[in-house]
């Protein structure tokens, strides 16, 4: 097992403790290589009355995928900041009829450098991401979202 896979496995276990809902969504092991994150889930616990993927579940998995990649990135920078979604736009293209995967990648290095500089200077920075729900390599849903990292204040 690679260090990145160990990080992904530990992160998913931590996440399940933080967000109880995802314990019921059929998540499979995460795939994280330090640049791209894939979160897969089973269709069965996320099905709607038509036998296809429930839009709310798909949106949840996509939103969580973006939140997770920002959180993983910050942790790899030695930071433990809060991450929130600021806004998002969803586009549904195809019905989901089998297990599915949410996938996203970190922005280019220069964008990450600007993000890091803002975090250091202001304790707050935004990262814009595109997350896609894939089913058999076809895009079923696309979320375009802005995630904000906020430096945790001592309590």
UniProtKB/TrEMBL annotation:
Q: Its domain of life? A: Bacteria
Annotated Thioesterase putative domain residues: 11-150
One Pfam family this sequence matches: YiiD_C
Q: Check the record and name the NCBIfam families matching this protein.
A: yiiD_Cterm
From the Swiss-Prot or TrEMBL record, give the protein name. Thioesterase putative domain-containing protein
Q: What is the lineage of its organism?
A: Bacteria, Pseudomonadati, Pseudomonadota, Gammaproteobacteria, Oceanospirillales
